[in-house]
């Protein structure tokens, strides 16, 4: 049995299964999962290489990996003048960018995400655009600092918090997964798509039945559309009110609507 390894776009080199090889690469992250990207793979002819490498790894662990990292005091004072310094250990400030420390929670972070999306007037966005927003990253780090009492949240922890926040906004009907493969989300909002869809539905139902359309019918049929299946009742009622206020709809009876 053989494993094929592509070394160039035009040359295919084969390695026999069980061969001793040297591999170089790096640890990365894709879609919030750890992965190893291999840059080079070559046959190792020296049969002692594996044993020597194990000895080297053990020495690295004893001399470096297990030894706490200590910032040189002069370096800390030069580059981190706003941090408290105690025995060469940086104590990171806990004050968040936009919220009080007592209010820090995942719900706070989701609210900050929602406000950011509204302020930027997004109609749709890529997950990466939100994940890279500095003000949201700062709040996310502060939430994690309070949750886990750590000094430096890992990027994977920050990404997980963003992912949970996005999923909850989808579940709450404020976002819709427009393209799962590309991580693209559509904002559910009266001015973006909801108002237009409600108006179109009432127009269709009025022409079909030649009568007013009841509020319950509107809510049921709007929620039958995949993009709007999680939209809260109060959001739909607000959209109806806006359409009445704008003169697009008329409310002849309580909880019934028709086109103007």
TrEMBL record:
Pfam families: STN1_2
Domain of life: Eukaryota
Limits of the Stn1 C-terminal domain: 108-250
Full protein name: Stn1 C-terminal domain-containing protein
């Amino acid at each position: 049995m053989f494993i094929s390894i592509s070394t160039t776009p035009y040359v295919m080199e084969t390695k026999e299964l069980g061969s001793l090889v040297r591999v170089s690469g790096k640890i990365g992250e894709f879609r919030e999962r750890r992965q190893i990207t291999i840059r080079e793979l070559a046959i190792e002819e020296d049969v002692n290489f594996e044993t020597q490498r194990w000895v080297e790894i053990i020495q690295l662990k004893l001399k470096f990996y297990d030894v706490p990292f200590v910032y040189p005091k002069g370096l800390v004072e030069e580059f981190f003048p706003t941090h408290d310094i105690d025995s060469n250990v940086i104590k990171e400030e806990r004050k968040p960018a936009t919220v009080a420390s007592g209010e820090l929670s995942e719900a706070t972070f989701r609210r900050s995400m929602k406000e950011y999306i509204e302020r930027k007037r997004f109609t749709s966005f890529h997950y990466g655009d939100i994940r890279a927003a500095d003000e949201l990253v700062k709040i996310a780090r502060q939430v994690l600092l309070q949750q886990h009492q750590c000094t430096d949240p890992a990027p994977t922890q920050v990404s997980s918090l963003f992912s949970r926040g996005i999923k909850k906004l989808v579940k709450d009907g404020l976002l819709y997964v427009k393209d799962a493969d590309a991580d693209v989300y559509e904002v559910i909002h009266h001015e973006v798509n909801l108002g237009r869809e409600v108006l179109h539905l009432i127009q269709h139902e009025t022409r079909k039945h030649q009568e007013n359309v009841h509020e319950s019918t509107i809510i049921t049929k709007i929620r039958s559309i995949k993009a709007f299946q999680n939209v809260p009742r109060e959001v739909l009622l607000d959209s109806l009110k806006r359409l009445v206020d704008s003169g697009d709809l008329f409310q002849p009876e309580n909880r019934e609507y028709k086109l103007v």
